[in-house]
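S1.2 Input.
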Amino acid sequence: MSPELNYLFHINDWASKLCGQIARIAALLHIFRYALEKPWNRRIALQDMHAAVKIGHVLIRHALKVFSQADDDLGHSIAEDILNWIKNSNIERFTQRECLRKLRRYDRKTLRMGLNILKERDFLHEFSDIRPKGAPSATFEVNPKYKNICKGQKGQ
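S1.3 Output.
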């Protein structure tokens, strides 16, 4: 789960509980196997532990897919919020900093997820804007095709 390995680091809260869950699964398999023979009088068999670990690997694959979808859903929700802000403000160009100030509920990293989705879908174009003062901030230009769609919707 360490950042250097870059495996399960992004779902650290979930992954840190995995060992305990695998132990519980092994105990349940053991109880199931020896239910009629007083399972508390026997040690958990290696066979049950191996089976629990296999189940743990399946759970990891499932969790990675679920958390990936959750990130996608969040990114799309943020992208929708950004588009609504663009539409309501009728802006053609903005910096990431301006967007962060307007959508304060997001931090820089999560806001970036939405901006990247909009870039991939060609709603926004990103470029570097060199300014004489202050720290640089990514600048985005709204695709003219999208600007026309917004203006058409606003007038209706």
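S1.4 Remarks. The CA atoms of residues 127 and 139 lie 6 Å apart.
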